[in-house]
Structure formats: structure tokens, C-alpha cells
Design a protein that fits this description.
- Helix 1 packs antiparallel against helix 2.
- The longest helix has 29 residues.
- The protein has six helices and no strands.
């Protein structure tokens, strides 16, 4: 899937939830954590989503990769801070919240790592490197993908209308899995 805006990226959405969750935790635990440690967690947790966004907007794969690695480092720093807080007796009442935030930080880190690995093994250099010919090829490929997706949706809708024991439907389901008829409205 191709994303046009960083706000649509599942990893950015998780990262912003991490920042929001950390901010909520810091507000609730304000009287138990020093200002410098609150500031550190606030900054590193927000840095995850900010670096994903900045890398996405840069226009080249190499720059995106650099920012993804910074985002991953920030997710690790966030998790480390949360591990520290989890060990503090004064924050015993927040163990469950801290644990959930650690899981979310680790999920962000894994998603960023997976994305970075896929980019490293790709020939894509980024929007900035497209010349007129390569841009037309890229647009042609993107348009073909859209047409293919539209065809698949139409095919699914047509197959759904066939009786469950129809040979064409049985063949389709053997290749693609059972139909969820609620998804096939045209």
C-alpha cells in the first residue's frame, strides 16, 4: 500500500499514541518524577512520531532511512525511561500503565525496523529522484495497481452473488479463502 500522508501510516499512528500515553502518564505521576526525567520522557516519546513524519516528508529513501533509525532509537530511549520508572517504588501505582506504554514503544520499534529493512532491500530512491521518465513509469505502475484493486473488488462482489455451491465461487474461495459477504457491496 502506498501512503500519501504520514498521518495515515500505522506506525506513525502508534507512535503518536505512545507520545499521548506518555504525556498522560507524566501528568498523572507529576509529583513522583523530577522535572528533568519528565522532560526527557516527554521529548523522546514525541521524537518517535516526529522523526517518522520528517523522514516521510524528505523525499529520498536515504533520508527516510536515517530518520527511521532516529525514530527507532527514540523508541528505545522511551522504553528505557519507562523501565527506569517501572523500578521506582514511588511509581508502583503506575506499573500497569508503564507496562502498556513499554509494549507500545516496542511495537513502534519493531514496525520501524521492518519498514527500514524493506526500504534497504528496495530499488526505490524516493520522490525527489524521479525524473520525467521515471515519474511517468511510477505513475503508470501506481495507476495499474489501482485498476487491479478495483478489478479485484468488482470480481469479489460478483462472486459473492453466486450461490455458495457454484463451481466458480468454490474455485475462487479455494484460491482466496472464504468470502466475507459484508465486504462485497457495490
Amino acid at each position: 500500500m502506498t501512503y500519501q500522508r504520514f498521518e495515515d501510516l500505522p506506525v506513525w499512528q502508534d507512535a503518536i499514541r505512545l507520545a499521548e500515553g506518555c504525556e498522560g502518564f507524566l501528568i498523572a505521576a507529576k509529583n513522583h518524577i523530577t522535572f528533568s526525567k519528565r522532560d526527557q520522557l516527554d521529548r523522546c516519546s514525541l521524537s518517535v512520531s516526529n522523526n517518522i513524519a520528517e523522514g516521510f516528508e524528505r523525499g529520498s529513501t536515504n533520508e527516510l532511512l536515517a530518520f527511521l533509525y532516529i525514530a527507532r532509537g527514540s523508541a528505545g530511549e522511551t522504553r528505557s525511561m519507562l523501565c527506569f520508572f517501572e523500578r521506582r517504588p514511588a511509581l508502583a501505582d503506575f506499573k500497569s500503565e508503564i507496562s502498556e506504554l513499554k509494549v507500545l514503544a516496542e511495537s513502534c520499534s519493531r514496525q520501524v525496523r521492518g519498514w527500514a529493512e524493506s526500504l534497504q532491500n528496495s530499488d526505490i530512491q524516493g520522490q525527489r529522484h524521479l525524473n520525467e521518465r521515471s515519474r511517468k513509469e511510477w505513475e503508470k505502475t501506481r495507476d495499474a495497481e489501482k485498476r487491479h484493486q478495483s478489478f479485484e473488488e468488482t470480481e469479489r462482489a460478483m462472486i459473492t452473488k453466486l450461490p455458495k455451491d457454484h463451481p466458480a465461487r468454490c474455485l475462487w474461495e479455494s484460491r482466496h479463502g472464504p468470502l466475507d459477504e459484508s465486504r462485497s457491496q457495490i
